[in-house]
């Protein structure tokens, strides 16, 4: 595509990609907000939850592919400049919002992809390219970090999108200019591009660095494996022998019982002197 400075509006390809990506982002976001609330008390409901996660992941990667395609088209062409370049603060906030939104549209699905690649156990991506990424091993700590960043990036996306919509309403209701028409019909007054975009770019970069730092500080750590603390060569003690009852006293056989005294053989008679005579 040729680079055209000072256009009156966006071309058909850019407008189509803009609205297609917007619709896909809204659909993926709604799927993500509802799938975490689905019941999973039965086997059929659990299968439905896994299917919802698979659809969410697949649609998110489709959105990422379209966003990257739109980014390439945006870099190869130049859109129209601001209609009110004299409003410095408003221009800075608008560019900061747009750049933050661009970062969210890329980092949100990318972090979800990295989270899946480091823990690809359930809810596969519905495509034929496998579930892993080169250089991304299965790592529970990294997976939880990407999950935390993914959640924070979702909030940043929601905030940036809300500011983007508020700005659009301001142009429609307050300013009553043709900013919205540039993205719907491609028509608008001539406006040359304005410089100074590197300042909001640095601010957006700082914002995303802050989000990454918060994710590092708040990501949950995995539970330690108790078997990793066992030293090498350790053998568990053998089970103690069960206690046995003391041996019962032996009872002699009947023939070993001594005969009573009266049954014993009579001993020799003892001579007793006769009693004295009267």
Automatic annotation (TrEMBL):
Coiled coil (residue ranges): none
Q: Which residues form the Cytochrome b561 bacterial/Ni-hydrogenase domain?
A: 10-186
Q: What is its main location?
A: membrane
Q: Where in the cell is it found?
A: Cell membrane
Cofactors needed by this protein, per the record, are: heme b
Specify the domain of life of the species encoding this protein: Bacteria
Q: How does it sit in the membrane?
A: Multi-pass membrane protein
Q: Spell out the residue ranges making up region: Disordered.
A: 224-278
Q: Which family does it belong to?
A: Belongs to the cytochrome b561 family.
Q: What is this protein called?
A: Cytochrome b/b6 domain-containing protein
Source species? Albidovulum sediminis
